[in-house]
Amino acid sequence: MIGTTLHEIRSHIASLASESGRYYLICGRTHHRPVPAADLYFESRSAARAAAQATEQYRTVLRRYDPQVPYYDVIVCECDPETPSRAATASPAATADPDQPAEAPNSPPASGDTQSVIDVCHTVAGVVFESIAESPHDGLENAIMDTYLDIAETIEHPDELCLQLLTSTATELEKRLDPDEQLSLLSTAAANLPIDAQADAVEAEPLDAVLAEFQAVDMLESYRVEQRSVDAESESRSWTVRIDGYALGGDGADGDHPERIVTLPIIVELFGRLATRSLTITDVERLSAAESSSAPAAWRLTIRTGAEERSHGHGLACVRATGR
């Protein structure tokens, strides 16, 4: 039995995958790789078909949380025999599964070039909602959806809708959970990230890996880690980072709250790349126009691992400029 939660369905899909597999899933219309199978390969066509069915089920469940989740026509393709089975990009000679339709005309169209942003947002939102469902915080999920749907009616662009889902989630977490409860919820959520979401942590600094991913999908314009340190004795780490043009940084999707930055996706992804289950955010600063020529705003903040006291009262879903 597959199960009905996002975590159970994703675990089932992962159990079908193989490092040496030659088959993979794409949308037959857009050629996008669908979450949660975007980085997975399968040993046989039958295993890939089962994964395709489970992927459709996963996206149906995810659509409970966000009605704007794109519809995909998931099909099975095979890598070119001349190409290594785990090639990052399949050969143009890949062949679609002849037993599956190449197009489902009754399905709403997918979102085309915006899909990368959508996938990042939905991956984070999905694991957070899973964590909420298993938590004692009754009413939190409904409160988030009420906040989101009230605003979503005024938004048309798919990217902005997904960003608004994260913003609405952060708003209710800040309102209803104290910093320790936010830490527990988000660290638990990170444990449910797709299995390959942590792969690049081996080759890069974890915070750099997170922010580079967001930059690649245009969620931020640029970033610079201005200072990083490691305490060998306590094994704690810290980063002081400047983030420019962040889509959730007091403008854009969070334009009603110019004094805060939504750190929810950064923290969840960072937890997924760290062994620690304790993070704090301090020294939050929204840079003035004289210090930042970018639009939207630029921010500077410090993120630390380790069990430090959250004396500044900051949560993790979103934080406000120090002194505000």
UniProtKB/TrEMBL annotation:
Limits of the DUF7551 domain: 118-319
The residue ranges flagged as biased composition, category Low complexity, are: 86-105
Annotated Pfam families? DUF7551 (PF24420), DUF7552 (PF24422)
Disordered: where is this region? Answer: 86-115
* Domain DUF7552 positions: 5-79
Superkingdom assignment:
Archaea
Q: What is this protein called?
A: Uncharacterized protein
Annotated organism of origin: Natrialba aegyptia DSM 13077
